[in-house]
Records
---
Amino acid sequence: MDVGALARTRARHPEAVAEAAARRGRRPLVGGSGRLMIVAADHPARGSLAAGGDPLAMAHRGDLLARLCLALSRPGVDGVLATADILDDLLLLGVLDGKVVMGSMNRGGLAGAAFEMDDRFTGYRPEDLARLGFDAGKLLLRVDYDDPGSLRTLHSAARTVDAMAERELPVFVEPFLSRREGPGPVRNDLSAEAVARAIAIASGLGGSSAYTWLKVPVTENPDDMARVMETSTLPAVLLGGDVGHGAEDADAAFEKWRGALRLPTVQGLVVGRALLYPPDGDVAGAVDTAVGLL
């Protein structure tokens, strides 16, 4: 990956990003298969750089871009979710033609920060996504009943859902009930009750749910997913996450997704580190396995 060439283009021809976006061939959000397979790479802008046991894995931008290009080249991969810096690179590399491009919208709640739950919208705005001709947006909605910052996040999220609906742009809402225990990190509650409640809260945001999708985790007990997904009729995709260091961890994640993908409202997968940084290093193999689940 020639990161020097990307830097030179950015320095001398910044207009090339908008030109590449204007040339990009578009496609429907959901293709002929009726399923979605999206590779996620929006972690770095939240300061979350760890993957597969390496605390700085995603800090190597050239390596990350190479992995993304490989993943996007595999059959059955529909598109990518990322922040502007990464999507601009991929536009300049010319690998987004005919792909679903999903912009990550709120990145203000930095991982580990005291203000993590006050997750302001510091990424793409609805007007940016419309101007660039992108296909969807994504927002993270973590709610901590003990943190006033969550109310600001809820309010901002609701107005963003409204703005996306006005533009007839899909928005993928990723809801969690979360909590911070003492000085430790924020933890997401993956119990059936918590995931169902988070889905209910997210489904009711804004003045219209017509363009709202859900991006949901598999519950701690995968057998609870059928009951949890009955909470809403909104279309949903499953999220991934870092699956651990060993092949058995990856196998367990794939098996959890396999069961949940059979549920009627679940339309696909949006997975990042589990596919880009698999334990055995085989990005193509991990992506192909995920596609096979669909």
---
Amino acid sequence: MSPAKKRARSYDSAKIRAAVLAQFGQVRDAVLALTPEQLSARTRLGDWTVRELAAHFTMAVGAVARGLEMPEPAKHELALLDWPSGTVTESEAIADGTRELAASAQPSELFTRTTARIEEALAEAPDTRLIPTRFGAMTLADFLVTRTVELVVHTDDLNDALPGLDVPYDRQALAACTRFLADTLAVKAPGASTEVRIPPFAVVQCVEGPRHTRGTPPNVVETDPLTWIRLATGRVEWRAALDDAKVSASGERADLSKLLPLMS
């Protein structure tokens, strides 16, 4: 997979590390308080129950520790902004692994074990350390940014499955996820004719066409972070978001329906 042409933005490593641990901790606390009936509830993720979704959190975060425990790869293979395009190719394998993990242990055991492993693994590992992933070797710093996407997207899935649960979103995790998916759109549709605004976290320009230089852009899309994340990951369709006034779009190049979702 060739590196993305767009240079990835810089993320504060200390904040990303703290955000991953904080969001995982909030999910852990919520899951460990669930009843057997709640764990058996259906989610919007195909045939997954909440139990399987819970297992997936531990698999996604545990991948950091597993990668750091393995020999360091010889070369850097995967740029940060290339990661989303690889997730589709491995979706079936990821789903199978999640089901096996959910059947292997109780959520309390999985979360306790993963918390200990990730905290120990991150204590000494440098940001530049290469770790193997399903899609190629990435730096630890880049891989942790992708974990904010996994955690925030699936926290939203968990809240959707259990109305009233309301697991909170760590602000730094939500910001990183929003910005990363906005940058992914800019890579997928390079250009500067359309401005996509996701206050308070991100603004990107994308889509081929006349370049905007000053004043109010002729093509503007604006939405909130969670709606953007749902659009980018296929949880909400473009037309439905427009109809529900969750998105405002003005200009002939402001229709992003053919570009979404960016990943699933």
---
Amino acid sequence: MKSLHHFTAAVVAAAAACLPTLASAQTPAAFPSKPVNIVVPYAAGGPVDNLARALAIRLNKTWAQPVVVINRTGANEIIGAEFAAKSAPDGYTLFAATEAALSMNPHLYKKLPYNPQKDFAPISRLISVPMVFFVPQNSKANTLQEFIAQARQAGKTKPLTYGSSGAGGIVHLPLAMFAKQEGLEMVHVPYKGAAPLIPEIIAGQIDAAVLGVSVIEQHIKGGRLKALAVSSQARSVALPDVPTFREAGVRDIQAVFNIGLLAPAGTPASLVEKISADVRKILLEPEFRKTQIDAFSYVAVASTPAEYRDFLVRDYQVQGERVRASGASLD
């Protein structure tokens, strides 16, 4: 019996040594050998979903395998993040995410069903979306400095208001930080998305807000809203007459919406590098940039895994400071 036990143990050990894990068995040269899923934490039709689907179509051609977008919506990207984090680390499940899941939620929720710093392998920061600080057309402020002066004069007696597409989001937190750094007394008015917010500002019910260039561009060019500054290092190609925050003499609030691609932690580094290289190549293709990036006033980033990882470390600190300044909590 003892000999049989030793023999069985030896066979099992030999088999374990010869059979690599599922994740390590897939070499970059052979990847992918079956369909790949991209988890999107939003419903179809939004910026994250649209970019993921455009990328999926091109990856399908590159990889000669179906690339399918799976929408797992709700809870400020938590549902999608948990699904992706708990998927097999074999390169066949990817996650298209924003600051919400990766940098904000840890500061907004006391407990999460995933750990953004430990459960994901960054692949690439795909794009960034500059945001515009804007006011109603009938606002007395024609520059950002004039708005700041107006807000200071209003003070606590009749504080100016700023709107957002939801408490604790990328639209709310930068403006909360802006009010703090400029010493302004302002009242936050949250809405359920940008759609109901925009008409309220056009009507002059809200004094200011920030939204993505692609979302607000038509209203600015149509004369229904006034853009006072763009939050980016350089002026927006779509709104070349609008100064940056720095040009306006104000510290940039870094209100930039980012979309990145990640894999579950444990995905072999060789696969992460391959996927990243293939994705970055597509992002920098002239036709893809023209139709899927430039057309929406996005900025192609196409970072390496290491660059994206460094960005997430920095952004985690930035978002933490903003959440503390705003006092926001989503628990």
